[in-house]
Amino acid sequence: MFVSRRPRSLHAGVTLVELAVVLALVGIVGGAIGVTLTRQQRFYRGAADLLTARGTVRDAMEVLATDIRGMSVADTPTLMADSAFEFFANIGTGVVCATDSGQEIGLAGSGGARGNVLTSLLVQPDSGDIAAVYQTAPDGAERWVRLRIASLATRALSSSCRAASPFAVGAGGNGYTLTLTAPPESPIREGMPVRFIRRGRYSLYRAGDGEWYLGYRRCNAVGPPSCGAVQPLSGPYRPYSRSRDATGLVFEYFDARGDHIDGTAATSLALVRITARAGAGQSLGGGGWNGGDSASVAIAIRNRLP
């Protein structure tokens, strides 16, 4: 006897158990993907923090090293602390090419047929800076004599220098007219070198956001230190600490024998060692790195006293 059977449907339903298993598998796979993405995001964020930290420390070292190498102990530092260093930095040089009996001095600039550059300025000096001229002082000794600046203006070479001056090379170049606040006590002659110096303070300070930064203050050139508002240069760094091994930025001072000195022995300064430690950030790959970086540099004073 033949019995017919109904064919099974090709669209049979899914049981509740099968649905639960599928959802569980999807949840596990999705969770694994989410964890992987989170770890990758943390890794790249940590790598970015590492690069930022290294850049911060490198910038600080370059800025400080450039200014400190150009200073002279003849321009005695006015503050030597563990987290702050105030000194006179060179911001330019020049050569006298004309003088008068008053307060104006002509400086040879750049240009001319030979393209000589006899005055070079990192920044434009102004009334807050000093011009140091190497000349014979009133006591008969030759040394750098400090003169207060009233202004420094760019002039045509033909008007800032004597026509017969050997420093007025060519025609059509530029020179400078330096105006002093008072006539110099000793005569300034053609050919004397001039240094422009600015008093400034570098320090580790805490900003309004609670982070610590390397800051710069411009200070008055003459008299007791009076500095302007701090300008952030780089950071953030680790917070200030009395411990030299933990603080974000530390200055150390040494004499020619390698002995530590303090602010009372500024004229013995021969070397400055700076250590900077960037602030903490994200961890990188669980390897214990906390997002910070550090660097140390020793800077010999180029024109230290014997």
Query: What fraction of residues sit in β-strands?
Result: 25-35%
Total number of distinct structural domains: 2
From the N-terminal CA to the C-terminal CA, the straight-line distance is 126 Å
Segments where pLDDT lies below 50 for 5+ residues?
A: 282-291
Main β-sheet, in a few words?
A: 6 strands, antiparallel, barrel
Structure summary, number of beta strands: 15
Overall pLDDT metric? 79
Shape: elongated
Taking all Cα atoms into account, the compactness measure Rg is 33 Å
Instruction: List SSEs in N-to-C order.
Output: HEEEEEEEEHEEEEEEE
Quickly count the helices: 2
Provide the fold topology.
Layout: H1 16-69, E1 79-80, E2 84-99, E3 104-108, E4 110-111, E5 116-117, E6 120-121, E7 130-136, E8 142-156, H2 157-160, E9 174-180, E10 193-206, E11 212-218, E12 231-237, E13 249-254, E14 271-277, E15 294-300
Antiparallel strand pairs: 1-2, 2-3, 2-6, 2-10, 3-9, 4-5, 7-8, 7-10, 8-9, 10-11, 11-12, 13-14, 14-15
Can you tell me about this structure?
The model is unreliable at 282-291 (pLDDT under 50). This protein has two domains: 47-87 and 200-300; 88-197. Strand 7 and strand 8 form a beta hairpin. It is α+β, with helices and mostly antiparallel strands and 306 residues long. The longest helix is centred in the N-terminal third of the chain and has 54 residues, at 16-69. It is built from two helices and 15 strands.
